[in-house]
Automatic annotation (TrEMBL):
<keyword id="KW-0812">Transmembrane</keyword>
<dbReference type="GO" id="GO:0005886">
    <property type="term" value="C:plasma membrane"/>
</dbReference>
<dbReference type="Pfam" id="PF02472">
    <property type="entry name" value="ExbD"/>
</dbReference>
<feature type="transmembrane region" description="Helical">
    <location>
        <begin position="15"/>
        <end position="34"/>
    </location>
</feature>
<keyword id="KW-1133">Transmembrane helix</keyword>
<keyword id="KW-0813">Transport</keyword>
<dbReference type="InterPro" id="IPR003400">
    <property type="entry name" value="ExbD"/>
</dbReference>
<dbReference type="GO" id="GO:0015031">
    <property type="term" value="P:protein transport"/>
</dbReference>
<keyword id="KW-0653">Protein transport</keyword>
<dbReference type="GO" id="GO:0022857">
    <property type="term" value="F:transmembrane transporter activity"/>
</dbReference>
<keyword id="KW-1003">Cell membrane</keyword>
<keyword id="KW-0472">Membrane</keyword>
<comment type="similarity">
    <text>Belongs to the ExbD/TolR family.</text>
</comment>
<protein>
    <submittedName>
        <fullName>Biopolymer transport protein ExbD/TolR</fullName>
    </submittedName>
</protein>
<keyword id="KW-0614">Plasmid</keyword>
Length: 132
């Protein structure tokens, strides 16, 4: 007498877990690409340096125009607004700021921007230059 065998069941593809995985991947790639979007810079005549190094991608690029006005992420702001923006960014100690100033900007305006960054608690400040 032959042993009883249950009929073979055909495998099924479960679609709900597949949709969950695809949505997770979509959200993951969206979050990663948002971090990769670079800030738009302004056309500045940066000073040159023979010791220029490539800095890591900063959280904020602070542009100082020749008239002394400050532009961050395409928005003109005063020094108090810059300080508030940086202070409310989250963990300010880990915020990286790069200051890009036209070479015709008075040094005092540059120092005012650095002071605002330091008053906000930023400790990592880079200076944008062109390599020679």
């Amino acid at each position: 007498m032959l042993p009883y065998r249950a009929p073979r069941r055909k495998g099924r593809v479960e679609i709900i877990p597949m949709i969950d995985v695809m949505l997770f991947l979509l959200v993951f790639f969206i979050m990663i690409t948002l971090q990769m979007i670079t800030d738009k810079g302004l056309k500045l005549d940066l000073p040159t340096s023979s010791q220029a190094k490539v800095l890591p991608h900063p959280h904020f690029v602070v542009n100082i125009l020749t008239d002394g006005s400050v532009v961050v992420k395409g928005k003109h702001m005063n020094l108090v607004g810059l300080q508030h923006l940086l202070a409310t960014d989250g963990n300010v100690a880990k915020t990286d700021v790069t200051i890009a100033a036209d070479k015709k900007v008075p040094f005092q305006d540059f120092v005012h921007v650095m002071d605002s960054c330091q008053k906000a608690g930023v400790t990592s400040i880079g200076i944008a230059t062109k390599a020679k």
